[in-house]
Amino acid sequence: MTTVRPDAAPEPGALLARVLPAESADERAxxxxxxxxGSFAAYFSAFPASYWAHGTVLTAVELRVAxxxxxxxxxxxxxxxxxxxxxxxxxxVGDDDAAVPGTTVLTAPLTGFDDGGWLxxxxxxxxxxxxxxxxxxxxxxxxxxxxxxxxxxTLDREAYLLPVLATLAADRDxxxxxxxxxxxxxxxxxxADEEGFAEVxxxxxxxxxxxxxxxxxxxxxxxxxxxxxxxxxxxxVVILDDDVAVSPEGIRRAIRFAEFATVPTIVGGHMFDMHVxxxxxxxxxxxxxxxxxxxxxxxARHDFAAHPLLGPESTWLHRRAExxxxxxxxxxxxxxxxxxxxxxxxxxxxxxxxxYGVRAAAAxxxxxxxPGAAIWHVSFDEKDDTVAWQGYFHARNxxxxxxxHSRFPGGGSVVWANFSLxxxxxxxxxxxxxxxxxxxxxxxxxxxxxxxxxxATKIGEANATLRxxxxxxxxxxAEWDRLTTxxxxxxxxxxxxxxxxxxxxxxxxxxIVLRGLIVKSDRPADAPxxxxxxxxxxxxxxxxxxxxxxxxxxxxxxxxxxRRDRAEFRRLLREAxxxxxxxxxxxxxxxxxYRAAAPGLVSVDTWRETxxxxxx
Length: 616
Description:
Keywords: Glycosyltransferase, Transferase
GO molecular function: glycosyltransferase activity
Strand content: 15-25%
Mean pLDDT: 88
EC number: 2.4.1.288
Number of domains: 3
Pfam family, one: GlfT2_domain3
Number of helices: 17
Radius of gyration: 27 Å
Helix content: 25-40%
InterPro entries: GlfT2_C (IPR045699), GlfT2_N (IPR040492), Nucleotide-diphossugar_trans (IPR029044)
Oligomer: single chain
Distance between the termini: 63 Å
Number of strands: 24
């Protein structure tokens, strides 16, 4: 062990990640900054070495630790299975004046991290952290300079948006790394008219660019963000959702990774739960190729408060995870990638981020979901938008993406996987949702020409379809309360077990299918529901046992009344089967059409025309 006296350190290289004492963090997020044993082996404080070793030109990283007092400083590392070992141990002798911090510099080679591993430090004895930072070694040049714009699309969410803008404005160090903060306002209320906007406008100054346009969905808004960033001459765009809590430090980390990346790289941030700050949505996102469906790589909903980075349940976090795409809750896209592969696919909402990541990878531009770069977002577990108007876009855009990108003949199993989902919706009396899915199939069969033209109209058509369908229609809160009080208390909880798997699916589904096809419901229209279920339990294997079920609304307000209708069941099932067979039969022809059309659909010129944004 070496004894050192901290001194004035030489000029550092680029700051890659800043580390602060856990006490300075949001109380709910402290588990992400400090491990239970007091070490800095924590999500935001440790350095994800395997990602930097694999994806950047750096061969070493420099740790600079400013401390007061005296004690032991350990630089430690893990490998891909989570096993920890020392890299360097120093005995630090502090200044006689305990209030004067000193800086100790350590260097760690980025070797042996091919499959995974982190770096972190620990302080023992009387050493107290003032500040630390992970730096590029002095003299190592960045591959490219990045001064991206922030791109936010908003729709009547000023309660979330204004704090995001205020947070960005307050961190002047990170703000100086940015070009513009582009806000695309697609709402029915103007952001500029909201109380508090003038303050953030003044704080952001020349960085702020506010654009007003009709509601063209997330893809229309983010395409505008991309286009405006290119027109401004920015080096890229950091896509941000409007309903998040943002970490400027995470933006810095994404920018630095992009600057040192070996090739132009899409750098995504992780998503944590807004209400459980230590819970991670997913470590990385992938596409299951044969089904062409998104999935998480590794366990989902990992809670660092319960399972810290070095905990026995967290060894998988030390393996480097490959991402097929990153959600557009936070995602940095370099301008070089935008110019090479185009802007967002005109999907309105759903699958635009996944399709973009797959498209980028095919062109040689990888996606990295970077640990330590993150935002907080309302959990997706709190809503099920597949049965709302978004269900149309889930179905259509998955198929359109597969037609462009699937490498399997006939799209692999995507058509029949979609049909299987349709059966499940029908078993749950989700007739409105299935009408939307069948319309999605028809629109896919009609070809890609209508994607841009329908951006402003499809949401209205989808909502009209749902309103015209009795089963599953939304019930206002006042009426909902009166309805549920009429349900017998014995039928308030009617769920039966977890999602069936394997042969259990057939055993559970067959009697419900036969009942739906053969048995006519004779329940009077004015009779109250037979049972009530919370949203989480309102699945086909539960709902399908009843003719009439009340359940909560996935958006959290009021409820929905699910009523079995044999004629609707038969008609929609037959229609879904016919459309699925047609899709499978025409897949080769449709795939050629969509692949040929794709470059034009995402081109800057096409989007300029759709957005009515002429070139400056």
